[in-house]
UniProtKB/TrEMBL annotation:
Pfam families: Abhydrolase_2. It comes from Rheinheimera riviphila. GO terms for biological process: xylan catabolic process. GO terms for molecular function: feruloyl esterase activity. This is Phospholipase/carboxylesterase/thioesterase domain-containing protein. The lineage of its organism: Bacteria, Pseudomonadati, Pseudomonadota, Gammaproteobacteria, Chromatiales.
């Protein structure tokens, strides 16, 4: 009898506890709901962020805003357009170096700040992709026809003029390292189409006497005095072709552009993030401006101050237009 009474009392106590617990849970839920309806940020429902959108890479790599990957003659090039484009737009052909030295369009864009240049100067900037080995057919030889990469460059110019409101009378080129050699080839072979060449850390490759442009062409060369990757004295490439010295390259263009041997050297100015100074030397009496800028202690690809670099680029390009 006593055991039965104790079991009954235990059951009643449990029922009371469950009732109290259920009431507390209900009131708590009601309180949270009320707080949520009050608009307090403390009660916002926390959810996991959505997964990032995956961008499929194009043949030119992953593209950013104002970039396109275009195809012509079974080759590709990346086009950077100005954010607020007006027409017609000057055209700049930009050539990257051999891997791993800024050997993709994206790396050259980062190195030279090409998006900012396109936006500030209304440039259409085309970055061709090299052949299967990502290099350029930039060798200049006596009596040779334009290389496949020169032919590609001309086709790109035509496409930009016909389909993207490019200005056929305002075409320039900039190249870095092996890409600089490609810019030199365009200056030698098609100066009637590419009217200004800016070469960074790379000299003319091939025969200097074979560089015989039909008209003078604007030239500006930029190089570091401590560049060990592309020595100022030049070298023989793995292909057996000659990479000429900087002095030999500049002398050839001094002759081409009818310059005297007199020069004017600018005051020193800061050109890199390490506060390295540079001076620009300008040949005098030239039909077209012929200049070179040397960075004291500069290596192959220093971190250039983009506004200063862009001023050098645009000054050269504009003088050709």
């Amino acid at each position: 009898m006593l055991c039965r009474m104790l079991r009954l009392q235990f059951q009643q106590e449990n029922q009371m506890k469950n009732t109290i617990l259920a009431t507390f849970v209900g009131l708590s839920a009601l309180g949270l709901t009320a707080c949520g309806s009050s608009g307090s940020s403390d009660s916002a429902v926390v959810t996991n962020p959505p997964p990032p959108v995956q961008v499929a890479p194009s043949a030119c790599g992953v593209l950013k805003a104002n970039e396109q990957c275009l195809q012509i003659n079974n080759r590709h090039f990346m086009l950077i357009s100005p954010a607020a484009k007006t027409t017609p737009s000057p055209i700049v052909l930009a050539f990257y170096g051999s891997p791993p030295s800024y050997g993709t369009p994206q790396e050259l864009d980062s190195f030279l700040g090409l998006h900012a240049l396109a936006d500030s100067k209304n440039y259409l900037i085309a970055l061709p992709l090299g052949g299967q080995d990502w290099t350029w057919e930039s060798n200049v030889q006596e009596g040779s026809n334009p290389s496949a990469d020169t032919a590609l460059s001309l086709a790109i110019i035509d496409k930009l003029v016909n389909e993207h409101q490019g200005d056929n009378n305002k075409v320039a080129t900039v190249g870095f390292s092996a890409g600089a050699m490609m810019s030199y080839q365009l200056a030698c072979q098609v100066p009637h189409r590419v009217k200004a060449a800016f070469a960074v850390s790379g000299q003319l490759r091939g025969s200097l006497p074979a560089c015989k442009p039909s008209v003078p062409v604007v030239l500006h060369h930029l190089h570091g005095t401590a560049d060990t990757d592309m020595a100022l004295e030049g070298r023989v490439a793995l292909s057996g072709n000659v990479i000429n010295s900087l002095s030999g390259t500049l002398e050839r263009f001094r002759q081409i552009n009818g310059c005297s041997t007199n020069t004017i050297v600018s005051d020193a100015f800061k050109l890199t993030a390490k506060d390295q100074t540079a001076k620009t030397t300008s040949f005098q009496g030239c039909i077209k401006p012929t200049q070179f800028t040397m960075v004291e202690g500069g290596q192959h690809h220093p971190e250039y101050l983009k506004p200063v670099l862009h001023q050098l680029l645009t000054t050269s390009f504009t003088s050709g237009f």
